[in-house]
Write a structure and sequence with these properties.
This protein has 483 residues and is an alpha+beta fold. It contains seven helices and 22 strands. The chain is 12% helix and 27% strand. The strands form five sheets. Strands 2, 4, 10, 11, 13 and 14 form a six-stranded mixed beta sheet that branches. Strand 6 and strand 7 form a beta hairpin. The longest helix is centred in the first third of the chain and has 12 residues.
């Protein structure tokens, strides 16, 4: 693939790479918006997100055992513990990120009714997309199967019998990129920048040299926030420092000028991708809370050129007094390979956010239980600008903020009609993932994508504007695509 900055690859892009859609980017993971895109703000569109309910009252009548004293139904150790250890204990263990443990019978019994309710409502394990085969299927799904949920329900309803203890169960080995190339931001104390679009936030970019001596392909990444309480998201973007961005001015010239605006602080402000005037090559690293190690599909990767520098953008959120003054140094670990079969790109799309550059930005009506925003992009036509015969979608990354409730991604492969590709019936900002499709979808030149985001703005006193602040909203979708 020839070296074409994403900013200039998409035709007629109004704010290429400058609008940080949700996690930010631009016409490639960031916010590329073609002239043909259409967007509508429709009040009243709804998706039923009421949690499923279940009767989880424990049966304490003693009728759960047969005359032989053996439980007639599922027991913890025989039936429920294998599910917990495979799906839950990685987080729900002493010292884990879960608020309670599920690795012993006593702990599981204490939290049995709550666990039954959460699994029935599919709020746990945290796998936001519907994964019942009616709207895409996904690699490495963490969603429980119907029979697993039924087993937990039956166990609680039977009084949570223990069964015979066992010691052969272990959670999956924790994954990490300990051997990956480590890129770290300096220790930095963020400060609230203020304004209607970032009331409690600061977006800061930092330049890191990966020290490559040859082109390589980024095939996996892991982001480790130094202070998770204040890190809203992180991006890492390869940048050609010598690229002429106009008038003989290079990317590095622009970055140095931005840094000079605040010489007493590390980095520079960057609401849009890598900052005003900086053109990025790609956005292969996008992280938000809840996301672990990300492996791109086997045989694919994102090119990083030998002389590229890496810009790491951190969105800091300081919406509580106790967060003011905290420092952070975030680490980005990347896995690099010499070659891959298919070179991909990460497209970041948020036409809702892009309306900030219109004379009258879109807004979500305040005080509404249900309000939605829908946008469309003819991305199939973009393949020609990358030198591709077609475009194949492998991964989908949905992102909204705190008013978000639902998000649906539909794909039209050939201009003949949309089909559901991913559906988030219950948005949770704290558990975000890049979802890879079991069956990638290929778009021809007439193909496109349509996204509908649903919100609850009952807590808002004024219309909710799109924006970068946590108190604003986005309707962002990142797509990992290849030829």
């Amino acid at each position: 693939m020839s070296r074409i900055p994403l900013n200039s690859a998409i035709p007629n892009s109004t704010t290429p790479l400058s609008a940080l859609s949700a996690l930010a980017l631009i016409a490639s993971l960031g916010s590329a918006c073609g002239d043909d895109a259409s967007a509508t703000n429709t009040e009243g569109a709804s998706t039923d997100t009421d949690s499923a309910s279940t009767d989880t009252d424990a049966n304490t009548t003693g009728e759960t055992e047969t005359d032989t004293g053996i439980a007639d139904g599922p027991t913890f150790w025989d039936d429920v513990a294998p599910i917990y250890f495979e799906r839950c204990v990685s987080c729900h263990k002493p010292g884990g990120v879960g608020p309670f443990a599920l690795d012993t019978y006593g702990a599981a019994q204490t939290w049995g009714p709550a666990s039954a309710a959460a699994t029935a409502a599919r709020t746990m394990p945290p796998w936001l997309v519907r994964d019942d085969g009616t709207c895409g299927t996904f690699h490495d799904s963490q969603a429980l199967q119907d029979e697993e949920i039924a087993t937990i329900q039956a166990w609680v309803q039977l009084g949570m019998p223990e069964g015979s203890p066992r010691s052969d169960l272990h959670p999956p080995e924790e994954e990490g990129l300990g051997d990956g190339l480590s890129l770290k931001t300096p220790t930095f104390v963020p400060e609230i920048q203020g304004g209607p679009l970032s009331e409690f936030d600061e977006y800061r970019c930092f330049l890191v040299d990966p020290g490559l001596d040859a082109d390589a392909f980024l095939t996996a990444y892991e982001v480790i926030p130094g202070t998770p309480e204040i890190v809203h998201h992180a991006l890492a973007m390869p940048v050609d420092p010598y690229l002429d961005v106009g008038g003989g001015v290079t990317n590095l010239d622009v970055i140095e000028a931005l840094e000079a605006e605040s010489p007493d602080r590390d980095g520079w402000p960057c609401f849009g991708a890598a900052g005003d005037g900086v053109e990025i090559n790609n956005m292969p690293v996008v992280w938000a809370p809840g996301q672990g190690v990300v492996h791109y599909p086997e045989g694919t990767g994102n090119r990083v050129y030998a002389d590229d520098l890496m810009v790491i953008q951190i969105h800091y959120n300081l919406d509580r007094p106790e967060l003011i003054g905290l420092s952070d140094s975030t680490e980005v670990r990347i896995e690099l390979r010499d070659d891959v079969e298919l070179e991909g790109l990460y497209l970041a799309l948020d036409p809702f956010l892009d309306t900030l550059f219109d004379d009258e930005p879109a807004a979500l009506a305040a005080g509404q239980a249900k309000v939605s925003y829908t946008w469309e992009e003819p991305i199939g036509d973009w393949a020609q600008y990358f030198g591709w015969p077609s475009m194949t979608i492998h991964g989908i990354f949905p992102h909204m903020h705190e008013y978000g409730q639902t998000l649906t991604v539909e794909v039209d492969p050939d201009g003949e009609g949309y089909e559901c590709a991913a559906d988030v019936p219950r948005w949770d900002f704290n558990w975000q993932h890049l979802y890879f499709l079991d069956k990638p979808v290929t778009l021809d030149g007439d193909g496109g994508v349509r996204v509908t985001c649903g919100y609850n703005t009952e807590a808002a006193e004024e219309p909710v504007l799109p924006g970068w602040g946590t108190g604003n909203e986005m309707c962002f979708v990142g797509l990992f695509v290849t030829p």
